[in-house]
Amino acid sequence: MFDRAGLICACQAHGRVVRVVVAAVRGSAPREVGAAMLVWASGQSGTIGGGALEFELAASARDLAQDTHSRHALGPDLGQCCGGAVEVLSEVYDLNRARALPSDLMARGPDPMPLSIKRMMKVARNEGRLPPAQMKDGWMIEPVQAPDQDIWIWGAGHVGRALVDVLQHVPGYRLTWADTGAERFPQDVADAVTVVPAADLPALAAHAPQDAHHLILTYAHDIDLGLCYALLTRGFASCGLIGSATKWARFRKRLGGLGHSPDEIARITCPIGDPSLGKAPHLIAIGVAYRLAQSTQTIPQRLETRA
């Protein structure tokens, strides 16, 4: 998908940015249509498959003054043995151009827009089903990636660390990591992860977006319960709680006594995960990441963990 938000952030940080995207593939190629990288004067992010082709396109992107459409055979001349061919768009953006992009579906090509593209755009927007990235009748079509959804991970223990380690690489999500003190976090945390030490985690929950996803994995049952109560009061997109069936039965009773209805309480998933993967922290995290990759709408619904 076209990462509009990521492009805007790159332009804010680096000024002029060239987006290089695979527009079409014939035969064997390192990456699929829609794979893209961003290139600026002093660096780049993303990949279109590495190797000589990526190196050459990144180097040429830094000198581009206007958009280009190029074709490349992946053979001996490039030192690559894929044997196929790719078409590549290299598009030059500044912040104003990036901000002017549509938020749902990108279509660009030589004027006038073909009737086939107009029909595709109309169907996609009327039915809410965005087409895959593709080159059609000389026009490049790409669905725009929805804004990142918030995931709040509560707890910096073994499972929390494994979740952050894995989920920071899953596109489409923005991670906030909370625990009761700065000393509970590892020394090195990726810049993309927002670390929030707070003595009172349930009080912090009031500041989470109401459409955020939550994973509650703290070291204390009373903190877990306080977070469940606070988030049920605050609202959330989804919420998963570390624990056993026994722990969850006790929590349901206590949350009911605190005034939450059975239907409200049932929105919290406990236990969460895929029991078949095991209970090692990184296996739990892999299960979460797999479910996230399956759907950009909901947090994984089953992630079994130890009480």
The geometry reads as elongated
Number of strands: 14
**Residues in β-strands, percent:** 15-25%
Poorly predicted regions are: 296-307
Q: Based on helices, strands and strand pairing, what is the structural class? A: alpha/beta
Element order: H for helix, E for strand: HEEEHEEHEHEEEHEEHEHEHHEH
- End-to-end C-alpha gap: 39 Å
Largest sheet: 6 strands, parallel
Average pLDDT taken over every residue: 89
Strand order of the largest sheet: 11-10-9-12-13-14
Backbone CA Rg: 23 Å
Q: Give the number of helices.
A: 10
Helicity range: 25-40%
Architecture blueprint of SSEs:
Layout lengths: L3 H11 L2 E10 L9 E5 L2 E4 L4 H11 L6 E6 L11 E9 L1 H5 L5 E4 L6 H13 L6 E3 L2 E5 L5 E6 L3 H10 L5 E7 L14 E4 L3 H4 L8 E4 L4 H14 L3 E4 L3 H13 L4 H4 L2 E2 L11 H14 L13
Report on the architecture of this protein.
- By secondary structure, the protein is of the alpha/beta class.
- It is 32% helix and 24% strand.
- The chain is built from ten helices and 14 strands.
- It has helices spanning 4-14, 51-61, 95-99, 115-127, 158-167, 201-204, 221-234, 245-257, 262-265, 281-294, and strands at residues 17-26, 36-40, 43-46, 68-73, 85-93, 105-108, 134-136, 139-143, 149-154, 173-179, 194-197, 213-216, 238-241, 268-269.
- The chain has a six-stranded parallel sheet with strand order 11-10-9-12-13-14, with helices on both faces. Strands 3-2-1-5-4 form a five-stranded antiparallel sheet. A three-stranded antiparallel sheet has the order 6-8-7, covered by helices on one side.
- Strand 12 (213-216), helix 7 (221-234) and strand 13 form a beta-alpha-beta unit.
- Helix 5 runs parallel beside helix 10.
